[in-house]
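Entry 14. Two folds queued back to back today. First construct below, sequence then structure tokens.
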Amino acid sequence: MDNFRRLFPFLYPHRRRLIVSLVCGLIVAVLWGANLTVAFPIVKVLFEKQSLAEYAEGEIAAATAKIEMHTRQLQVITEQDAALERQGLPPENPQRVETRQAMVREQGRVNEFSRSHQQVLWLQCYVLPYIPGDKLQTLAAILGVLLVATGIKCVFLYFQEVLVNSVAELIIIDVRKQMLDQTLKNDYESLSQEGTAGLMSRFTYDTEQLSTTITLFAGKLIREPLKCLACMVGALVINWRLTLLSLLFVPLLGLTINQFGVLLKRACRRMMESMSRIYKVLEETFDGIKVILAFNTGTRHRKMFDDQCNEYYRTSMKVVKLDALTRPALELLGLAAMFIALLPGVYLVLKERTDIWGIKLSSEVMDPAMLGMLYAFLAGMLDPCRKMSTSFSRVKRANAAIDRIFDVIDDESRIPEPAEPVPFPSEFRSISFQNITFRYNPRNGIAPRESVLDGLSLDVKANEVVAVVGTNGCGKSTLLNLLLRLYDPQAGDIRIDDTSIRDMTTADLRSRIGLVTQDTVLFDDTILENIRYGSPDATREQIEKAAEMAHVLPIVERFPAGFETRVGEKGKELSGGQRQRIALARAIVRNPSILILDEPTSAIDAESEALIHATLRDFVKGRTAFIVTHSMSESLLQFVTRIVVVASGQVVADGSHAQLMDSSPLYRRLFDAPSRAVPRLKGGAAAPEKPSVETERAVERTKGAAA
């Protein structure tokens, strides 16, 4: 229940609807209990063949006689006490104490029968005049009242269900919003470790489990206990001794529920983790569908999916079995509790007694009608308990879901924000990587990886264009991810002038950096909005200028809708080169102080590469730029001012192209073995290639825009 308390802040904004639904549930409960009272007149009319008027007259006469009898006994006992007092016996004398106790008992009985007398008189005066004298008509009238009361109960039940479900949906929306807010505040490493499939499972499957249980809690799990309480009050009024006798199984019921609850919660959590793995298999399958079809490996992915579905089946069946065992166990205990009161009650009625083995179980001899109404109330208590038992597994599923949901909400970013942030300098002189050591944290129980960066140091002056070169996995991309503070190093620091980037807010730092990655990320929106992304205040003129510089205009001109053309999910309506040019325009319109290009042309055609390099040649002027690549090209060398070679997590060479060709075998090998087969002249220079007409025109437009 501690987890459910954490939902209270989400419930509070919708408290008015909850209060109204609670009132509706209370009315339903009262009408439920009131409907069960018809057992009494039905037994009187059908089985005892006695009209209600005759019953009322008999009860008034019996109550009057008993009042008179106990009044006389009270007078006798009062006179006895007065005689003892005249004999000089003090109040603490045992005889006088016993006498006064007898006086209290008799006075209580007089009061009790007086109340019964008044109640029956009230019924005789205000209710019975409207009940037909004929027994058949009386029964028809009772059933009519029962039908009307049930109809009213159903109306309030409808309103409660509508209110409760609306509150549940609003709460789930609020929970998902907070989950997303916290996710967007989290660090990149934590999110990548959880994975898209795990997060999607928590946002969808887990929250749906929670939604179902909120509906149960605010509806059935409030309404049914109120119905049970209404029946209990009615049973206590009729015979509190027999009612308490039926509650002897409550402690055993509580122990059973607790034990099943622990097992169910554990099984439900495993089931949800299994569902996350199913999401992961589906995500990998759909993302890699092109490769799967090309390599004809659908059977393999089908087997992976089957394995995870079978695992989910095994874990879910544990929940089903526990749930199936819980329901009959609780129902059996409830029925046993009812029988404990039923058998003594039947004995009292048949033998016309008020006690069993000297244990008083009734204040007066009960008749069959009274016993019938008592057990109608006890049966009315059993039905809500049965309904609540069917919801037990759902509650435990929600408990496990809340754990997983609040794991997301409570997860703190590993990239802390400074308490007193320092603003990013309007102009800076240098960026310094000082003795950086970094390793990725282990995930899913895998042993810690060795350091990706191991004591790396690098100083970059403002407005330098630095190419970071190295083989795959050497740490060059990781180095620039640290500059973005997607991660923080385990040792060392990154400084802009004399200020550590840890002392700046991540929002301020990242707002000064433009990023173009190898895996271009476009969103299912228009070309215009994808360029504007990250610069929401950019004007149409600025966007068009950035598009012209990035050679996006030829792309726009091909579509009738122009800039308003939607690019589709992940930009699937465009080619790789087109997507990359839009990504470059997005970075240009941001007008960043620092530009990071992470393998921006490794996955595109040579023509798009030439266009992008032509753009960069003019755009990087007056900016500090980092270009991550595993090979160099002649077009890059036209604007790169410095080359840094990274290997084994350290800077192994640093200098100009000519210097490194002479001094670094690794750089020379990377330069001579480019990713694309480009014919080269003697000395390593690339043979000139005649550019396409589109490329020539685009380059000319770029020069004009830059001018």
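Second construct, same run, same settings:
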Amino acid sequence: MVSRRRSLLKVGAATLALTVASMQLLHCGGQSLSARDGGNENDATVEAGSIDDGSAPNCICLGDASGTVPTCDGAVGWQCRVDTSCSSGSPTTLTGKVFDPAGANPLYNAVVFIPNDPAALPAINPGTNACTTCDVSIGPYVVAAATDASGTFTLQGVPTGVDVPVTVQIGKWRRTVAVNITKDCGSNSVTDGVLRLPRKKSEGDMPQMALLTGGCDDLGCFLTNVGIDPVEFSAPHGGGRVDVYQGLGTTGNGAGPSVGVAGDCTSSACPLWASKQSLESYDTVLLSCECGENNQTKPPAAMQALHDWLDEGGYVFASHFQYTWFKNNPQTDFQNVATWLGPSAATGSGAYDVDTIAEGQGFGDWLGVVGALDGAGSPPALDLANVATSVSTVNGPTTQWIYDPNTTPNNTKYLSFETPVGGTPPPPPSPCNETACVSKKFCGKAVFADLDVSSNTPGDAGAVPEGCPKQGLTPQQKALEFLFFDEVACVTENCPPPPPPPFPQAPCDAGGD
């Protein structure tokens, strides 16, 4: 079983474990900067000398208006606006919840932080062609935290002011929102729904995704109901964040994306999996069920390409008959991640148990928060429909998320595994990589659901997103949403957190991992 994941992100030169112990309270010149001027703690300008205890040069904080960054004597950034005179029992805090792009379901293990300078956030480049594990940086920050199973976070020691930037990030999803924090040395909160991931790239950063449509599933409609805006569905390399490819079982010109014509994956000439290089344009690939293995469109070279791309950091979601990418892959490590049973129609339904070992505990808690569980039993159970029996047990490091408790062996319905399978030795510990206790390094991840996410395929000749019904997520789709966002979290072993890094962060040396 893979060890439990912590939320780890590269922060400048060091890897930050987002725990309470690693949150920093940073300020200008060692002084207490609450931006008070005549009793008004939200004034845009603080007079020189208005905050001076004689221990450091006077600081001038200029402007909290949107798009500006406080400038203090000898320093620039929101760390200048943290009031360090607050008692340890009453720091300035900000609490709230982080939601999916639709603003409907809270997110677990999302990072929430206040960047020192929102204009200097590290660039996020779409596509995957090298192992990055936890190298998606949040950059220099003032304070940071991770959300719990209810999507809730608490930031302690936050700046006070108007339009304070609050950034939410998980993997390559990132969005910054301006929040007024008005209670110095007290509790502040953000209204539910304000902090969410972006729906379109104009709102923030999003990964580059490839969607394969299929006649027996609607992962494209799943994406629209998660909240991704229809404008992001486009022809391959057409400018959207979801490139659409037509799989077997659909009609018309494939998926009918919002921009252009879908790529053709109805033959062995599919441009999506033509080579490892073609897959490298993407961060995530979603493979909808095509009502059969259809191996004639997936030659061994294509399966090898997917294998190699996953090993270097790609992410894959596969439903039902798309197990063929693993069961029939030329590489035995993919074949052996589970005991595959072969073709099975998706006809079952009922309550299936949630595995609460290791990572599953947060999974079960989150499913309860979003109202997806079938009652309050132990272990928690989830109602599934359109369920197949293509796999019995998971092997080696594979994680079982949902399983059938009424069969022997308990056949698995949701599983995931990290790649390379079994991991590789990590580089020597340094300020630019994981701590010394890490014994294995992983890069990518595959998630498999042995079911059709929904029996309702798009009505307009398979068009996505135009043919997708607008509706909330079913319990089994909520389970997939958890895995969809959990998938991009870092893969690491359960190490003690490193000490908080100094501020500001020094850049890693070129070539640092």
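Quick look at the second one. The chain has two domains: 1-206, 207-486. The chain has seven helices and 24 strands.
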